[in-house]
Amino acid sequence: MKNEKLIIAAKSSIDDGALRLLIYSYGKNVPVCALNYIKTCSELNISPRSFYRYKKVLLKKPELFITANDLEKSSKSSELTHLFNEFYNAYPRKMGKGRAEKSFATAVKKGTDPNVLIEASKKFTVFHEEKQTDKQYIPYPATWLNAEGWSDETISSITNTTSIEDDLAPNVL
User: Fold this and answer.
1) For residue 144, what are the contacts with CB-CB under 8 A and spacing of at least 6?
2) In terms of domains, do 83 and 146 share one?
3) What is the pLDDT of residue 81?
4) What is the DSSP letter of 65?
5) How far apart are CA 91 and CA 119, in angstroms?
6) Residues 149, 139: contact at Cβ < 8 Å?
7) 51 and 18, same structural domain?
8) pTM, to two decimals
9) Cys-Cys link to 145, which of 43, 103, 119, 157 (CB 3.0-4.6 A)?
10) pLDDT tens per residue, range 50-76
11) What confidence tier does 144 reach under pLDDT thresholds 50, 70, 90?
């Protein structure tokens, strides 16, 4: 969303200084109207007079403002990207990352907890390592996500099995 607004700003008739101020505010995730002029002036190496002139130009173009909704979307997006990367790194087959990311986002939008997906992919990896499954028989991550593979019987059976330590523990009553 912010990138789209920057493209609109670059194509519009605002001067370079106002565009620099806009880019600076986007980088700080702060609306232009909330910028501290002293700090901004020193970081952008502009005078306070120029700062207010650029700010005045930008305030006349509300379509370029960062809204609270934009900030919320960008923080959710970056958090979802981080969670997806964690999922993808845990998954046993690294193919079709772009489609997998879309499928991951769709699964989360449908109400699946991202941490459930991450844990299930870790268990899926363990399952296939134990079975020594050839990579060609492991589905692509997007396929697994679209088929809701985290709810498969193999994943739930891994959580219900006892560990080696439990098998070796003495039965003392």
Assistant:
1) 91, 121, 124
2) yes
3) 85
4) P
5) 10
6) yes
7) yes
8) 0.51
9) 103
10) 888 888 887 787 766 666 565 555 556
11) very high
